[in-house]
Fold this protein.
Amino acid sequence: MSAFWFHYNKPESRKQKMNMLTVHYQGKCHFVHDIVCKVPLETRHRKKQPHCVMAGSGEIAFFSNKAVISK
């Protein structure tokens, strides 16, 4: 299992004119429309942007703008 975190991406959402999320996983940023999460999450508060993110540990598969997170 690998650590990951994700957050709402306001600039990308405005650019694409739809809600976008950014998933940070294995040192890369992935833009997705949807997330299906099957693992526990916790909030993380950061001093820089984004100030509040959701974080956890698991394996992520990406399918056509969707991230599926499982153990």
Observations:
- The chain is about 10% helix and 60% strand.
- The longest helix spans residues 10-16.
- The helical segments are 10-16.
- The longest strand covers residues 52-63.
